[in-house]
Specification:
The protein has two domains: 2-197 and 398-419, Vaccinia Virus protein VP39 (Rossmann fold), CATH 3.40.50; 216-325 and 331-372, no CATH class. Helix content is 28%, strand content 14%. It is globular and about 75 Å long. The longest helix has 13 residues, at 144-156. The strands form three sheets. Strands 3-2-1-4-5-7-6 form a seven-stranded mixed sheet, sandwiched between helices. The chain has a four-stranded antiparallel sheet with strand order 11-10-12-13. The protein has 14 helices and 13 strands. The protein has 422 residues and is of the alpha/beta class.
């Protein structure tokens, strides 16, 4: 089997599904477990730190681990950084078969910190049986020194190991999400996957095709004109560009319209072209009745008045990215939804009373956030708004996971399997 520790809502599992393989996930959060169940993924609901290792010995060919990152993340209090010496001590002890977790946990400032040492408990037990064949681990960049310690232990057990920082945008994810990655193998040389994308598109050369430019939010969401054959959700009226279709104060109506996949006309009678979500998908995939001749965009006198961007959180120094770029790292804190679409005028606004007001910020939806993480549009997120966003922000982007796992499995990765499997 492939054992997935801290499996979450299924980022790694989704990648394995696309590659034609399944894993067994260990996960504690009830809503992540429900999401996994609705997505058809095998799950044991348990505390990874309490579950025994013996059921997996003699049966495991791959181990995946993405320990909870809240204690280490830039988005949290980062008490895990203060606990680093204790975590390193736990890894050292577990690698030698000594379980000192109870004593070390009592000294931790954040009870989640020591979870980053848990994979070593499983790896130690499996190594006695000559398992696993390979390991893939992911965490926030500050955990890289811990991965260095893991690497030293695994090399001593006969693994080839690579660890370092990878940017998800370099692999087609519409998000500049940087993560500390560890890859280890007993049967092949461990090395990072070759990047497929770059901040600027590269020309073809004698050595092969150049890398494509980073995938923008507009491309991933199907909003606005892009280099890819994706539909324009509308010529105006929201994040696709153009005039705001509702006046200030109509956030709920606008959000509801977006969830239906249709942008509605302005109350003042201006004509805007709307495009239904289903027709858009058919146009993108080249199938269905709407594929051959999608509706033409209709512009008004106020078309392209607004330029839309994604604001990463509510802080004064929040990162703001235009739709033509990938998103910043998506994370969601104590509030259900911190990321918002904001609009700026593309030209000076008239000062007369009839000039439209600047649109209010529009909160990102779970569907949109999931797409920016490369989950399919219909992924069955379980729970309320806060529970859904917590799962999405903590998940591994499936497309990045696919690039990391495919070499271990000896399977060729086709990125289109991820972008079209909605």
């Amino acid at each position: 089997m492939i054992l997935d520790l801290f499996a979450g809502p299924g980022g790694w599992s989704r990648a394995l599904h696309v590659l034609g393989v399944r894993d067994v996930g260990l996960e504690w959060d009830q809503w992540a477990c429900k999401t996994r169940a609705w997505a058809g993924q095998l799950t044991i609901r348990t505390d990874v730190a309490m579950y025994p290792t013996w059921p997996f010995v003699g049966r495991t060919r791959g181990v995946i681990a993405s320990p909870p990152c809240q204690a280490w993340s830039m988005a949290g209090k980062r008490l895990g950084l203060l606990d680093q010496p204790l975590v390193h001590a736990a890894v050292e002890d577990l690698a030698a078969g000594r379980d000192t977790r109870a004593r070390l946990l009592a000294a931790c400032r954040d009870e989640r910190s020591l979870l980053a040492a848990e994979p070593m408990r499983y790896l130690y037990a499996l190594n006695a049986a000559g398992e696993p064949d390979w390991v893939a681990m992911e965490e926030v960049p500050d955990v890289l020194p811990l991965w260095k310690q893991y690497a030293a232990v695994l090399r001593g057990w006969g693994f080839s190991v690579w660890y370092g920082i990878l940017n998800a945008a370099d692999f087609g994810v519409p998000q500049t999400r940087k993560r500390a990655i560890l890859l280890a193998s007993r049967i092949r040389t461990a090395q990072p996957p070759a990047p497929t994308h770059a901040q600027l598109a590269e020309p073809d050369s004698l050595f092969g095709p150049g890398r494509a430019r980073w995938v923008s939010m507009a491309e991933a969401l199907g909003w606005g004109a892009t280099d890819r054959p994706v539909p324009t959700v509308c010529a105006g009226g929201g994040p696709g560009g153009g005039p705001e279709p509702f006046p200030s104060g109509s956030r709920k109506t606008l959000s509801d319209a977006r969830d239906r996949g249709t942008w509605m006309p302005r109350p003042d009678g201006a004509v805007l072209q709307s495009l239904h979500k289903g027709a858009g998908r058919a146009a993108r995939h080249g199938t269905g009745a709407g594929a051959a001749d999608p509706p033409a965009a209709t512009f008004t006198a106020e078309a392209r008045r607004w330029s839309w961007s994604l604001r990463s959180n509510n802080q004064a120094n929040a990162t703001v990215r235009p739709l033509s770029e990938p998103a910043d790292t998506l994370f969601f804190g104590h509030r259900a939804n911190e990321c918002t679409w904001i609009a700026e005028p593309t030209a000076p606004l008239a000062e007369d009373a009839d000039a439209p007001a600047v649109p209010e910020p529009i909160r990102i939806t779970a569907r949109e956030a999931g797409l920016l993480q490369t989950f399919p549009a219909d992924y069955p997120w379980a729970g309320n708004k806060g529970q859904k966003f917590s799962q999405i922000g903590n998940a591994v982007p499936p497309l990045l996971a696919g690039h990391l796992l495919a070499p271990h499995l000896g399977i060729a990765l086709d990125p289109e399997d991820f972008t079209l499997a909605a």
